[in-house]
Amino acid sequence: MSSNLNFSFNGKNAIITGGAQGIGFQIALQFLTAGANVSIWDYSADALEKAKSELGKFSGQLHTAQVDVTNRESCQKAVASLPWNVDILVNNAGITRDKSFAKLGAEEWDAVINTNLTGLFNVTKNLFEKFNASSSHKRIINISSVVGLYGNFGQANYAAAKAGVIGMTKTLGKELGRKGFTVNAVAPGFIMTAMTKAMPKEVLEQMAGKVPVARLGETSDIANACLFLASEQASYINGTVISVDGGIVL
Ligand SMILES: NC(=O)c1ccc[n+]([C@@H]2O[C@H](COP(=O)([O-])OP(=O)(O)OC[C@H]3O[C@@H](n4cnc5c(N)ncnc54)[C@H](O)[C@@H]3O)[C@@H](O)[C@H]2O)c1
Q1: Phi, psi of 66 (to 5 degrees)
Q2: Best of 29, 42, 203 to mutate for ligand 1, by most ligand atoms within 8 A of CB?
Q3: For 168-174, what is the mean pLDDT?
Q4: Does residue 20's CB lie within 6 angstroms of at least one atom of ligand 1?
């Protein structure tokens, strides 16, 4: 689905973690289309190369860095490589390692918490001083999940990390509001990505059947929410979670 939002981010600088594919790529594409300079941070060199070639027409606005958000040194290096100060940070990098709690091991627990929650700390903490001091519209947008709000079978690690993201969002919203930031979370439901699109049609139809709006989400549904939250028009929205899930939990 294409976006018909017409926000302008000319002169604004955005960082999207995990932006080389999936939801993050669409967020990067829409910010670029709306005029922002975008730095994509991702640990996959292959995905970064592919993204760079797909975003070729935006090469003058695009910066990429190979960053592992779980590694503090890697985050520090990426901050040092930034060609500009930051106005908008979208913490989107995330992974799943699903297992029922009886089978969940420390390895799956650590991997998911380190990426989805500690990664958000590593990135935000290291970038904090790089935010445009003169801007009164600084934005941090954290990608959580419907699972962080309601839990999900087989995802104790992921639900804990995504709920942690919400707790951190609310706290930073309180602490940083007076410093010209808003800090919000977006909680996606079932979103179609390359991985989901490869699933059998019947399974996808069954999943869509559980959603009141009778479809799965598109990556642009999430990107649209991010662009809105990043806009000056959203400057009174702070410390909240916007669910973008077609009403699946109703
Ligand atoms: N797809 C969904 O249905 C869905 C639903 C709810 C929430 N989410 C959340 O949305 C975000 C994006 O999900 P997606 O479906 O696009 O996933 P994806 O796997 O398609 O993309 C995730 C990106 O993050 C990158 N990444 C992973 N670990 C990293 C690390 N340590 N350092 C740097 N980059 C790293 C990957 O290389 C990849 O490019 C995640 O936070 C995910 O938890 C997705």
Answers
A1: -85, 110
A2: 42
A3: 98
A4: yes
